[in-house]
């Protein structure tokens, strides 16, 4: 069976792992790093860069460098107004109220952008394994709703992957932590504070069974928010000192973002850090420089409200697992933001347990995803994962009430049915509105789908029996059906358009992603050929300069003619001609090398002969008599 890779598709960084025998391996990317920044840059000429190469050019190309796209996945445009203020790139309203990234004259869905990152992860794995990779387990925040999970699955499809399973990030972390340990029904807390989302999951581990007891979280809390408080502070201080507002300058904003992230990281190991941004902007009075010192104490004060925001979901998770005031055996920290000392201190105080330092917070999620891939492919034995649905699911009933069919923290996969009836006499059709959330009124929750059940037999209100069934698969993705029990008429919906993309759109995006991958490959090959031509031209000119007088005139003329042809082919970017002239040049240079070797050989012979002759000149013939 082919390998199933594990991908942590993160807000800030992504990571890919695979099982090698009984052990998971984190795969190093083409830049030699184990994690890849979730950043994509669109360059002139249609080229795209992903990861560190994209990050390096972000300051000079802020409007076409996309980061934190995960915060827009599976969400409506009307839901992301706050996020729009924090990114320099342009997002507009697309079909079905979906957010679309505008690059030049093309619009990209968040799924398409995420697919570019996933393609990079896929290629990284293929380079390591040596074969094509088609299957993956992809992680999502535990508190992602149905639309966000569906959007993640679609991103995988667009990238050319069969998504075998969507797995919650904290659950993946627990899998990685507990795989090689013996547990006796231990209660494990996974506190996951990443770049854009926060999750808290409580699991029970025992004899190969990983059972999620509860999960909670905040999909609008992460490292980006901690960066933002530093950015806001810098902008405020700069305006106070210089009278200039940096918010409207996209290049300055990108520099501020990079500086804020760097300062946050440095403050995890230092008590203060200097933020120095020369020439951040300019006005009529000349260039302006930003130089500020940020202390850890001030950073903790600025971000105190964010740190405290994570505690309410922690309390809810403990309550849902019936573990208030009960002993927790282990606390695992996941996500780069958990390196903040105050976060670690807060977690220890809340759970009354020192967090474990036994896992790498940046890699543990992808390792867990790879283990789940191993379970699905049969490579990993004796591991059973029991996950839960993070939010309640239900339908709208009379008066706009949200009637739950499946409660939050129910183990999945699961199936529930309930009987409903009509609200009016002789009602021949009903609209089933499906929602997800915890509020008592339907409109206060998220609508994730709707469908109609028609041709209901005429009857007084309350008489028809309509059976509504909710069926959640192991990915946490929902199927809903409604059946009129008297007529047998049935209608069902797989909540798959909740992400805002139709099947037709996904297929188009898959084709375009494939075409772009081919285009990028071709572009890369073209650049490599041009580089080869430049190298050949440089080396040939150097050799002509050094050894031109030591090869035959005929060979020299051939080299000069071919060099001229190669330069012309290079300037016109004619790849086939470049290949041809490089091959010809290699043959000519091989001949000239032989000539050079022969010349040197002849010179050596001549020198040796001269030396011998010189030696003989100094030798005198004399008579001698042998004495006995």
From TrEMBL:
Keywords per UniProt: ATP-binding, Chaperone, Coiled coil, Nucleotide-binding, Phosphoprotein, Stress response
Gene Ontology molecular function, alphabetical: ATP binding; ATP-dependent protein folding chaperone; unfolded protein binding
Domain of life: Bacteria
Region of interest: Disordered: 599-628
Any Pfam family the entry gives: HSP70
InterPro entries cross-referenced by the UniProt entry: ATPase_NBD (IPR043129), Chaperone_DnaK (IPR012725), Heat_shock_70_CS (IPR018181), HSP70_C_sf (IPR029048), HSP70_peptide-bd_sf (IPR029047), Hsp_70_fam (IPR013126)
Coiled-coil zones: 503-569
Gene3D superfamilies recorded: 1.20.1270.10, 3.30.420.40, Actin, Chain A, domain 4 (3.90.640.10), Substrate Binding Domain Of DNAk, Chain A, domain 1 (2.60.34.10)
Modification type Phosphothreonine: residues: 197
GO cellular component, one term: intracellular organelle lumen
CDD domains: ASKHA_NBD_HSP70_DnaK-like (cd10234)
Expression induction or repression: By stress conditions e.g. heat shock.
Biological function: Acts as a chaperone.
Similarity field: Belongs to the heat shock protein 70 family.
The protein's name: Chaperone protein DnaK
Biological source species: Candidatus Karelsulcia muelleri
């Amino acid at each position: 069976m082919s390998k199933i890779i594990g991908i942590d598709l993160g807000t800030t960084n992504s990571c890919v792992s695979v099982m090698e025998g009984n052990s998971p391996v984190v795969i190093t990317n083409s830049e030699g790093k184990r994690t890849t920044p979730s950043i994509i840059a669109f360059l002139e000429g249609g080229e795209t860069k992903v990861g560190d190469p994209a990050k390096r050019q972000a300051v000079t190309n802020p409007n076409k460098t996309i980061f934190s796209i995960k915060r827009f996945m599976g969400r409506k445009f009307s839901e992301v107004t706050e996020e729009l203020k924090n990114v320099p790139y342009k997002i507009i309203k697309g079909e079905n109220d979906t957010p679309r990234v505008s690059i030049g004259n093309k619009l990209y869905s968040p799924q398409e952008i995420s697919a570019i990152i996933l393609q990079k992860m896929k290629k990284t794995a293929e380079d390591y394994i040596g074969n094509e990779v088609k299957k993956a387990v992809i992680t999502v925040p535990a508190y992602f709703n149905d639309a966000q999970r569906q959007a993640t699955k679609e991103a995988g499809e667009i990238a050319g992957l069969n998504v075998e399973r969507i797995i919650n990030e904290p659950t993946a972390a627990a899998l990685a932590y507990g795989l090689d340990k013996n547990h006796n029904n231990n209660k494990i807390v996974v506190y996951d504070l990443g770049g854009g989302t926060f999750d808290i999951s409580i699991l029970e581990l025992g004899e190969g069974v990983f059972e999620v007891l509860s999960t909670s979280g905040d999909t609008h809390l992460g490292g980006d928010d901690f960066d933002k408080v530093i950015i806001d502070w810098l902008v405020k201080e700069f305006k106070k000192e210089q009278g200039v507002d940096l918010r409207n300058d996209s290049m300055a904003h990108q520099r501020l973002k990079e500086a804020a992230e760097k300062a946050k990281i440095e403050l995890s190991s230092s008590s203060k850090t200097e933020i120095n941004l020369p020439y951040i902007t300019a006005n009529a009075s000349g260039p302006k420089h930003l130089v500020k010192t940020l202390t850890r104490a001030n950073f903790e004060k600025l971000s105190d409200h964010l740190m405290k925001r994570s505690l309410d979901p922690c309390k809810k998770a403990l309550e849902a697992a019936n573990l208030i005031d009960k002993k927790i055996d282990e606390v695992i920290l996941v996500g780069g933001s958990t390196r903040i000392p105050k976060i670690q201190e807060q977690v220890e105080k809340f759970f009354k347990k020192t967090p474990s330092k036994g896992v790498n917070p940046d890699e543990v999620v992808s390792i867990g995803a790879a283990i789940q891939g191993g379970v699905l492919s049969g490579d990993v034995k004796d591991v059973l994962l029991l996950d839960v649905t993070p939010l309640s699911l239900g339908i709208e009933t009379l008066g706009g009430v949200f009637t739950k069919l499946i409660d939050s923290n129910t183990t999945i996969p699961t199936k529930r049915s309930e009987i409903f009836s009509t609200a009016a006499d002789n009602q021949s059709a009903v609209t089933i509105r499906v929602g997800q959330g915890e509020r008592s009124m339907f409109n206060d929750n998220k609508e994730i789908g709707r469908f109609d059940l028609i041709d209901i037999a005429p009857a007084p209100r309350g008489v028809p029996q309509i059976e509504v069934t909710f069926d959640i698969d192991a990915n946490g993705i929902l199927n809903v059906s409604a059946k009129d029990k008297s007529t047998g008429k049935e209608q069902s919906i797989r909540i798959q358009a909740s992400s805002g993309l139709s099947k037709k759109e996904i297929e188009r995006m898959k084709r375009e992603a494939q075409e772009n991958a081919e285009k990028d490959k071709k572009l890369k090959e073209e650049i490599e050929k041009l580089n080869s031509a430049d190298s050949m031209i440089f080396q040939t000119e150097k050799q002509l300069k050094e050894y031109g007088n030591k090869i035959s005139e005929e060979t020299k003329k051939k080299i000069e003619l071919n060099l001229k042809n190669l330069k012309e082919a290079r300037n016109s970017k004619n790849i086939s001609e470049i290949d041809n002239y490089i091959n010809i040049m290699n043959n000519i240079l091989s001949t000239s090398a032989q000539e050079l070797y022969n010349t040197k050989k002849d010179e050596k012979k001549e020198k040796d002969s001269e030396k011998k002759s010189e030696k003989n000149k100094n030798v005198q013939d004399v008579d001698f008599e042998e004495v006995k």
